[in-house]
Write a structure and sequence with these properties.
It contains 25 helices and 26 strands.
Amino acid sequence: MPQATPRNIFSYPQFWAARLGPAPVLPMSREEMDLLGWDACDIILVTGDAYVDHPSFGMAVIGRVLEAQGFRVGIIAQPSWEGIEDFARLGPPRLFFGVTAGNMDSMVNRYTADRKVRSDDAYTPGGEGGRRPDRSVIAYVQRCRQACKGVPVVIGGIEASLRRIAHYDYWQDKVRRSVLLDAKADLLVYGNGERQVVEIAHRLAAGASIRDLTDLRGTVCVAPALPAAWAEVDSSRVDIPGPLAPPPDPYAATGPACEEAAGSREVRLQPRPPRHPRERTVIRLPAFEAVRDDPVLYAHASRLLHLETNPGNARALVQRHGAREVWVNPPPIPLTTEELDGVFELPYTRRPHPAYGDARIPAYEMIRFSVNIMRGCFGGCTFCSITEHEGRIIQSRSEDSVVREIEAIRDTVPGFTGVISDVGGPTANMYRLACKDPAIEAACRRPSCVHPGICSNLDTDHSALVHLYRRVRELPGIKKVLVASGLRYDLAVRSPEYVRELVTHHVGGYLKIAPEHTETGPLSKMMKPGMGAYDEFKRLFERYSKEAGKEQYLIPYFIAAHPGTTDEDMMNLALWLKRNGFRADQVQTFLPSPMATATAMYRSGKNPLRKVTHAGESVPIPRGLKVRRLHKAFLRYHDPKNWPLLRDALKRMGRADLIGNGKRHLIPAWQPAAGTTAAAPSRKGRAFATQHTGPVGTRRGRKGMRSK
């Protein structure tokens, strides 16, 4: 049975090695271990990223949190998976291996949305590509097993988190088993993992077997049998899949709650049996074989998983894979402000491991002078994995903790010029926003607090964030504090004072926001607001920029080929871009990341935002290279290379009237000669269409996915 009330992660009695004090940097070699006086590591973390000792890198966070518990933690970063030498370099850990693909999903890291191999890797020294294998978690676990037989292996991070049940694999175009089984690991940690790994480490140190750790929130294990006193509920009783049944007769009185009196038509209502406690109820999802073979059942299972993600009311899930049962415990309880402050104020060096010398690590350069002020996102965007990984309950740091981190950057990080590049998180303006009533929050099952409209129970007061901005920009030695994280503009317009503060002091000329589309069809499948909210935010942005005497621009992001998008939708978006003087310089298409709701749409052609049935709502899916290229071409309507494709499409769509040389036309009728460049249309700014995937490790947009 999952634990109900967690203890503070810093309240455990420290393990004996705490007397050694924190390491200057977690060791990556035997030589470093010798200098620290270690004969062995208690825990070894294996990661697909270069080791950067910074709170934006997941393995650094987990490593330092475990170190604070008194454990000796080593790091194996970007090991060669073609042999076992790198996996044996630190010797066997006393307690367990912790394995992750890194801050990004390895498949997203290695391949584009068109399944082409990327040439670079932002998490590798020098940006070099090819330093991690496909499905890194599986490969790394195999090598750990070979190098150190009998040592428990725990997997986690974004790659494992989003593959905790049977999931659609876009790169193989098939449904795969839970990665727990494919990797042959002992335990899977999903979501932010501090609570889970601390409890795992202390229990194993106390002599527990890894096979006994079946009751931890935020973990997935193989269950031998249904525990005693538990009730099992089939998913079809929670949300009925399959063909639509005829509507029930509202006058009929049938079923177990009714009984017809003998010899008469009198109907007596009988009391229903009491419900089993939620904390001892497990929902049985359709088996792996069923969701593999039936896309509608896949969408049904996805819907059920997303309905059971609120830590306040989520039930355990179980899914059969052949003869084995994969048991998913409810999500972890979010960290308190005190705990989150403690995590971010551990003794990070805030720089790459010295072994990398002067090599440049692009992802580190991006976050070097940034500060994360919160976790989680209640937006619920169907293409994004932040909510699925970090949860929808916002976990915020205290002002004092944020100030101390900025002062540490100012005083200790080489090259600091006085500019904090970002004060934000998964969504820049959700700091300290929450449900007005904790009891309502604990009972809520909505996938989003802001769609189809902002919930009346959501506190949208931005005053705490405004106060934080004012405080940090007044710190001595701080010249500028920027906000570069994704912004939820439909929330921002609820607080014009926040928009004024942001625009006047924290925008560096351009502000990126993500309407994602202009048309109702795709927006409804993304769970994004309509363009009315964008227009209102744009009005406020321009007003306050003018009042501040600044020339500043909004940069809207858009997605091509998202489920629910038709060719006409993309044409209308292209017309909007041209009318508003935008050119999309970076265009990528929707990438179906494992476990995302939009991926269930892509796989099934159904809408899992509603009850899923074979005869239920169908969703148009831009599937196949030809249509995906067309949708990308609409976003880059100004590129002459796309004009032949767009001309053919517009003629097929009956919109040849958009071909011509006037301002009302989308593309010209002429084609520039090879080797020449067509004149660029005038523009007010640049628009970017970006790829959304799963995030994330512990740092949002910098970890493979961008939110709002």
